[in-house]
Amino acid sequence: MTIIQIALLSRWHVHADDYAREAKDNKALNIQMVWDEDTARGEQWARELGVPFEADLDCVCANPSIDAVIVTTPTHRHKEILIKAAKHKKHIFTEKVLALTVKDCEAILEAVKEQGVEVMLSLPRLVEKEFLYAEKALEQGWLGKLSMIRCRLAHNGGVIYEGEDRGWLPERFFRKEQTGGGALIDLGAHPIYLMNRLAGKAEALYARLQQQESDQVDDTAVVTVEYTSGALGVIETSFLSHGSPFQLELYGTEGTLLAEEGEVKIKSMHVNENNWTLMDEPMTDKPRPLEQWVQAIKEQKQPSITKDDFIKLTLINEASVRSHQEGRRIIINKMLTK
Predict the structure, then answer these.
(1) Helix, strand, coil shares, percent, the chain, to 5
(2) Are 219 and 212 in contact (CB under 8 A)?
(3) What secondary structure does DSSP assign to 46-58, as a single string?
(4) How many Å separate Cα 296 from the centre of its chain?
(5) How do strand 68-71 and strand 29-35 relate by DSSP bridges?
(6) DSSP three-state, residue 93
(7) Which residues lie below 8 Å from residue 228, measured CB to CB, with a gap of 6+?
(8) What is the predicted pLDDT for the residue at 289?
(9) Which strands, in side-by-side order, build the sheet including 29-35?
(10) For residues 161 and 189, is the Cβ–Cβ distance under 8 A?
């Protein structure tokens, strides 16, 4: 396979154009056609890209000239569409989350395994310096025993300012049937998968998914996670926060790491005589998710972003929804066995 022929499936997600641009910039990929559940939207996108629009998803998946698909459909359609693509032996790149339940994630991954195709979920902050520095600090023992981790990612996409009818985030992101949730499943996904990696296995959690402005989905959420190591984690996210910076904080018995808006600093008994120190040494670059997917297809190279990341992301989301609905602490293992 010299050039991977791509079909773009839906412009529903706000990052659909970003992935189309990444695909166009990647010499190993060629966008061959567009499908969208909204015909008018899909036809417009196809015109902009200068490729044909195909209204029948089955025709796209059955097309022998298509090698792979980039899926940015409504989240509730992921299971149906990803399994259909896999059964037609199409490689799959998709926006998070993989699916709304662990059971559905497992069904998708089973189909992928059976058909021998590659699947990649876009979890981009696993290749960015905040995570890479935090991972290194833990691996080097600079923080001692991790006692607490906090991560916040929020924006103002749900804020309706004076003179406006709505915020900049599309209205469809507030339709529960399509999204499966609000701020937590969308923005909160990033803190969840980062903390899953850095803090390890989650044992239990308690979540509050607040509907402050939206009448269907949470627009602000906080999740407190207990890890098997004994560490505590706090996940914060919101669609109603103006000027809120991305923050990642790790606290341990021998050091603290703070990351905010691209700056990472550490204070450790093992670094620079226990003085606050910017972490700015060069890091080995890790390819972005789309590039890792291409390398897996063409070179059989193992991605650093794994299926375990996919499953655990949905697991924390699913447990958080249950915690909020039932107003109680959820023990993760008990939830999985039910």
Answers:
(1) 40, 25, 35
(2) yes
(3) HHHHTS-B-S-HH
(4) 19
(5) unpaired
(6) strand
(7) 200, 201, 202, 203
(8) 97
(9) 29-35, 4-9, 68-71, 91-95, 119-122
(10) no
pLDDT along the chain (338 residues), means of 10: 92 96 96 97 97 97 97 97 98 97 97 97 96 97 98 96 91 94 97 97 97 95 97 98 97 98 95 96 87 96 96 97 97 71
Query: CA Rg, the chain, in Å?
Result: 21
What is the C-alpha separation between 157 and 166, in angstroms, rounded? Answer: 9
Q: Running DSSP on this structure, what letter comes out for residue 271?
A: B
Task: Note whether 168 and 136 are within 8 A (CB).
Answer: no
Q: How far apart are CA 35 and CA 39, in angstroms?
A: 8
CA distance 50 to 211: 41
Q: What is the pLDDT of residue 281?
A: 86
The SS3 call for residue 119 is: strand
Distance CA 44, CA 280 (A): 44
What amino acid occupies position 322?
R
Cα–Cα distance measured from residue 247 to residue 257, given in angstroms and rounded to the nearest whole number: 11
